[in-house]
Amino acid sequence: MKSLEDLKQDLLADGKIDAAEVAELEKHLYADGKIDTDEADFLFELNNAVSGNENAPEWEIFFIEAISGYLLDDVNSAGEIDEDEATWLHDKITGDGSIDATERNLLLHLSERSNNFPDHLAELLNSN
């Protein structure tokens, strides 16, 4: 199986993510049934690299579902975003200096699905 770095190089060769690449990502990242921290970080790296480009609609759906699952389906705080997760998410979203539409839609999705939604994430969602 390809390393995440090799996969990243392949996916970013044309500067966008198409539907076939989303299928490849899903197969690769869910090979063990879940998204781990390295894979979640990887997804944010990909999103930052292709932000604003003509990506397949499947990319945003996959990104949102994968990150939401990573945050909400864990055993330590199932259905909730705990403080460590909130800090991680805040850092990932603000790390590149801007909040793109995919990240904003992720925040909106999490605000609707999580049993709690930390105030500093709500502020990000409502910021310009």
Short description:
The protein has one domain (4-126).
Structure explained in plain terms:
This protein has helices at residues 4-11, 19-29, 37-50, 57-72, 83-94, 101-113, 119-126. It is mainly α and 128 residues long. The chain has one domain (4-126). Helix 4 (57-72) packs across helix 6. The longest helix has 16 residues, at 57-72. It is globular. It starts with a helix and ends with a helix.
Features:
128 residues, mainly alpha, 7 helices
Number of domains: 1
Helical proportion, percent range: 55-70%
Would you identify the regions where 5 or more consecutive residues have pLDDT less than 50?
A: none
Regarding quaternary structure, what we see is: single chain
The fraction of residues in strands falls at under 5%
Number of helices: 7
Distance between the termini: 40 Å
DSSP summary, beta strand count: 0
Mind telling me the C-alpha Rg? Answer: 14 Å
> What is the overall pLDDT average?
95
- Secondary structure category: mainly alpha
Give a short account of the largest sheet.
none
